[in-house]
Specification:
elongated, about 625 residues, six-stranded parallel β-sheet, mainly alpha, three-stranded parallel β-sheet, about 5% strand
Length: about 625
């Protein structure tokens, strides 16, 4: 996360102080920055016992409540400060920051206007204005204002830093990095600048430089939870999970109980394969901050790693219901879909986008995303959409309607010019509008090109051996090695290799395979080739999706914890004609054993069909 003024997820990053705040309040604020809310709270409560209306103490106590994820308490404290002193511009500014933190931009502007009317546009309030403009997407205006601030004092490190934050938000990462470097030049001990510089370096894949920057930030503030958290993630990306665990533990020595550091330790343990330890760690983070959504989402990941999908889904739902949990709804929805909790997933995702139009008020156009797998995965919803709306549902791709219609061969695709952008409903959002139970949708929904399928059947001719289609890209795409599958195919059969692109390197594994590649021009060719086979073995890529959508018999081999549409261990698959064979924790052994059993049964049934066919012919 890019730090605004310090690497912290909560309101403290924008906390405002006036000149009259006591040194004790500053010490409390330092405790908060180090992730020690209990110590800060003791100091602040002592101050408020002596001076109940101390502005600085109330504002800092509000930041402590926000750090615990208690949004309601935070707002109550700030409103109390304003009821005691309606002209408390510090409280008004912090209330504006609170509203901005939760995307309540109109309310943030109102607080700014009230504070500005009382004290003028102070530097702190000007900073709030710039942040509001940034939140509204007015990056050019916000950057222009910050550049003017910088022109007034070009040697001010904070001005360079604030400009860097805005540039980073507007995706101008190279310029942002230069600003952070200039801020460090002006103030070598600028911890927040080192932190954000590390973020940008990590984003661009310069992991060694990022690790150096994060460690410099930790030298300036040892144990800082947010920097520990990001450093741990970069170390894990660098295949240094053991070092990541040590950094997290060192951070917890300095700041015991810091939630971000606890979660970082759990992620390191997960990367080391110690799943039960990670789950225990995530659970302790939930106990430390029960009202914050992030520990619950981490707990969901821990349950998922152990294969406990039901508890993972429950934790994900709980996280979205916590204050600030809306930011995690996309992840929670994906997790729920993966674990077969369809109704809950649609509900969670729809709550995240309440302004999605219904199909009746929209013009019933759905825009196809560039990822064709999403189209195939969500295609069954189109039939339900048509039934519920009572109208034709059209699919409009990004570029060429004719190409999409030809490749997918949907019976209800009609060539039509796309409507205005405002009336296009993204295909990925269709489920949020309809909220269906995918298990009730009939399959297949794609129409086979019979001319091409007949040509493939004629090409293969009458054979006494079954035709087995192999359609996958290899172990680099989350699929088992082809050699292991071929070991199972140790009975008389014709092996039809449906490989394209880089996957064609697998042809050398077995020279007896028939190469269908030269004849595969478009998706309908792949589907026709697979349809000519008696049994399809596919991975979770395009081959598996096509085989399932066309209702072809066979098996799909998927890694553990694959996409929800395969329905492994968590409910029925959308593609009911395919049997899902899932890998185990230690590898592909269980999936290959299951495939072997399926092929034994297939051999028996195929032999009976051949015998019955011969008898009928006689």
């Amino acid at each position: 996360m890019m730090s605004e003024s310090m690497p912290n997820e909560f309101l403290l990053g924008n906390l405002l102080f006036d000149d009259e705040d006591s040194q004790a309040v500053q010490i409390a604020a330092d405790h908060l920055r180090l992730g020690r809310p209990d110590a800060a709270r003791l100091i602040l409560q002592d101050i408020l016992k002596r001076i109940p209306h101390h502005s600085g103490a109330l504002n800092c106590l509000a930041a402590e409540a926000m750090m615990r994820g208690d949004v309601k308490k935070t707002e109550e404290i700030l409103q109390l400060a304003l009821s005691v002193n309606p002209q408390d511009t510090v409280a008004l500014g912090n209330l504006g920051n609170l509203h901005l933190h939760h995307q309540r931009i109109a309310e943030a502007r109102l607080c700014l206007e009230r504070a500005e009317a009382l004290a003028g546009l102070t530097p702190a309030l000007e900073s709030l204005l710039i942040h509001i403009l940034s939140a509204e997407g007015e990056f050019d205006v916000a950057i222009s204002l910050q550049e003017k601030v910088l022109e007034k004092n070009p040697k001010n490190a904070e001005n360079h830093y604030n400009l860097g934050v805005l540039l980073a938000r507007s995706q101008q990462h190279t310029s942002a990095e230069e600003c952070f470097q200039r801020a460090i030049f002006q103030r070598p001990a600028y911890r927040e600048a080192w932190h954000n510089l590390g973020q940008l370096q990590a984003r661009s894949g310069r992991l060694k430089e990022a690790i150096f920057s994060f460690k410099r930030a930790l030298l300036l503030l040892p144990g800082d939870p947010a920097t520990i958290s990001t450093l741990v993630d970069v170390l894990i990306q660098s295949d240094r999970a053991s070092d990541a665990e040590e950094e997290a533990k060192r951070g917890l020595i300095v700041t015991p109980g810091a939630v971000l550091s606890i979660l970082a330790l759990g992620r390191a343990q997960l990367a080391l394969g110690r799943k039960q330890d990670a789950l225990t760690t995530f659970a302790s983070a939930v106990r430390a901050a029960p009202e914050h959504p992030l520990p619950l989402m981490s707990l969901a990941r821990g349950f998922a790693a152990l294969g406990n999908y039901a508890k993972a889904a429950d934790a994900a739902i709980m996280a979205t219901r916590r204050p600030g949990g809306t930011a995690f709804r996309d992840f929670a929805g994906d997790l729920l879909l993966k674990f077969g909790r369809f109704s809950a997933a649609w509900q969670v995702l729809a709550e995240a986008t309440p302004d999605i139009p219904s199909l009746e008020v929209a013009e019933n156009f759905i825009q196809i995303p560039e990822d064709i797998l999403q189209v195939l995965c969500l295609a069954p919803l189109l039939r339900l959409a048509q039934e519920q709306s009572g109208k034709d549902v059209f699919i409009i791709p990004h570029n060429n309607t004719v190409v999409a219609g030809r490749l997918l061969s949907f019976s209800n695709i009609i060539e039509k010019v796309a409507p205005p952008t405002s009336n296009i409903l993204a295909l990925a959002q269709l489920g949020m509008v309809l909220r269906p139970d995918p298990t009730s949708i009939p399959l297949p929904t794609l129409v086979l090109d019979e001319t091409k399928a007949s040509a493939w059947r004629r090409a293969l001719g009458a054979r006494d051996k079954p035709v087995i289609a192999l359609a996958f890209n290899g172990e680099n795409d989350g699929e088992p090695p082809l050699a292991e599958i071929l070991k199972i195919l140790n009975f008389p059969c014709t092996k039809l290799a449906i490989f394209t692109g880089d996957a064609r390197r697998h042809l050398d594994v077995d020279p007896d395979m028939l190469d269908a590649g030269p004849h595969l021009i478009e998706l309908s060719d792949i589907a026709a080739a697979m349809a000519s086979a008696d049994f399809v073995i596919a991975g979770r890529g395009i081959g598996g999706h096509l085989a399932g959508a066309f209702g072809l018999s066979g098996a799909v081999l998927v890694p553990r914890g694959s996409d929800w549409c395969w329905g492994v261990e968590h409910g029925p698959s959308w593609f009911r004609s395919l049997h899902s064979c899932q890998a185990g924790e230690t590898g592909w052994g269980p999936a290959l054993a299951e495939l072997s059993n399926l092929l034994v049964n297939f051999q028996k049934s195929h032999s009976l069909r051949v015998i019955n066919g011969v008898e009928e012919g006689n």
